[in-house]
Amino acid sequence: MMWDETGLSDLQAQLAHEMLSRVSAITLEKQVWLVRGVVNAPERRGVGRVVLWDGRRLDASVAFDMPLTDPEGANIPSGDLAAALRSAVAGCSEQDVEQAPRDAFGIPVIDASATVHAFVAQPQFHLSDALLAAGAAFSIRPESDEPAELRLRGFLLLDQATCRLYLDTPTSQDTLPSGFDLPLRDEEGSVVAGATGAQAVLPMLLEMGEIERLRKDVHDPYCLAVYDLAGWLTGR
Predict the structure, then answer these.
(1) How far apart are CA 42 and CA 3, in angstroms?
(2) What is the 3-state secondary structure (H, E, C) of 25-58?
(3) Per-residue b/e over 34-62, b at no fewer than 16 CB within 10 Å?
(4) Between 28 and 224, whose confidence is greater?
(5) Could you tell me which residues come within 8 angstroms of residue 195 by beta carbon, excluding any fewer than 6 positions away?
(6) Residue by residue, what is the 3-state secondary structure of 141-165?
(7) What's the whole-number mean pLDDT along residues 119-144?
(8) What separation, in Å, do the N-terminal and C-terminal C-alpha atoms of the chain show?
(9) By CB neighbour count within 10 A (0-12 exposed, 13-18 middle, 19+ buried), where does 3 fall?
(10) Of 159, 149, 62, 156, nearest to 101 (Cα)?
């Protein structure tokens, strides 16, 4: 089968979407935790149970009960819950696991309510959380029937404060996308997940023809041109 450039760009976009979901793996020091399952916590209304394991031994699994709402009853965004889970895992000791009650599968269950609510009160995101949020705003599911103005073809973490998203349109005939630099930290240097505003601003800049003012004089072999939304969005 011979693929044209549009078909190949579709495959590239699907790969970017799939890899984006793996950006925020729960990595602590030299250990990586994988998600074994997500279920409702029995007899606990409004609580989701996330089961983790080390990818080698199922008997090393640990489950964490995560409240789906904050103390005032507002829903907690799933991205915040995923980030809070990292904190829960980091604060879980071997003694906590040994003393934890077991579920029907013999998996120790840790109540992460206090950790989640503390995270909601004072979020501390990882750069991977911010990268995931920035890319997800433009990532199109392969089976999606909804039209999109811009599509994620790729992404790259440039440094500790900036990522570059490679975007095109779903009907693009170009062999290369355009690169857009987005900020991952606020003015105080704290990591911010999902607060760049790029999804709303970028289509407007493109429609008004204002995007060329943000073009950077840099060479990137992965794209046709690079535009600095990081400086524009933060005012730097």
Answers:
(1) 49
(2) CEEECCEEEEEEEEEECCCCCCEEEEEEECCCCH
(3) eebeeeebeeeeebbbbbbbeeeeeeebb
(4) 224
(5) 133, 186
(6) CCCCCCCCCCEEEEEEECCCCEEEE
(7) 83
(8) 48
(9) exposed
(10) 62
What mean pLDDT do residues 7-31 have? 78
Read off the DSSP letter of residue 106: S
Which tops the pLDDT comparison, 41 or 219?
219
Alpha-helical regions (H) of the chain: 5-20, 78-90, 94-99, 113-121, 127-136, 198-208, 229-234
Q: Which residue's structure tokens are 């103390």? A: 71
How many C-beta neighbours within 10 Å does residue 117 have?
A: 15
List, for residues 177-226, the tens digit of each pLDDT value.
999 999 998 888 889 886 557 877 888 888 888 889 999 999 999 999 99
CA torsion angle for 212, 234, 136, 158 (degrees, to 10)? 80
Residue type at position 73: G
What predicted TM-score, i.e. pTM, was given to this entire model? 0.79
